[in-house]
Structure prediction request, 265 residues.
Amino acid sequence: MEGRAPGGEAGRPPPGAEKESHHPCRRKLIVPQCNTMATVLRRLGTVSTVQALEEDLERRTLDGEFQPGEHLREVELARQYDVGRNTLRAAFDGLARRGLLVKSRNRGVFVRVLTSRDLVEVYELRSAIEIQAGRSLAARRSVPEEAQRALAAQRRLTGDSARRDLVEADLAFHRAIVDGAGNSRLSAVHRDIAAEIRLSLAQLMETDYATVEDLTAEHANVLRAVLSGEEGTAEALIRRHLEVATAWLVGHGTPPGEEPTRPES
Prediction:
């Protein structure tokens, strides 16, 4: 590895759809078959209808089209995608298992809301995993190539980039640090909480916490510490990066008022 520090369709609406909307699948405008499974399958390059539907619903959730706590209306979504309700329910089940949605008996399916306690617990676990990974890499002065690629990809983003792209770029960097440490169990636990990390990052990106340039600079500093073999500095940078984000989210990014919908027991 080179020893230098890191630096510097939706488908077209059918005739008669409202002309003023530039996005025919906004939830405010329900147009039957506006985003058919054929369109989604072509975009995602998959042959599984349920998988394609699950991935597109995840995209819309992380992009903010579906807000935390929002009720996902089965009939309307089945019409939008031109699929049967059993197919849609299978996609809901997959997203619920991954922690992005919650199912409430007799009420329906909702986008999960992470409470303050959820956020603190997720970030405490993330810190334990990522700090250990960062120290391990610094001890070897080993900067993972995937982390360098993730950082380069993040630099290409701007404040106008889609929220899901910002979330995935941030997660890709942190996952590369964990995977680069070579501890399969750390990687497995990190992947187990990936859905909650994505939701927490999506909530963070909704606030004015930091610019993408700020976050990229913090990631670059972590890689510099790793490359220099500074275990203590790498730990301090990762800890501060996660703790400050958690404190901000708890103070600014969690919905006030009523307790969010909880999963079925």
User: Anything to note?
Assistant: Strands lie at 71-72, 101-104, 108-111.
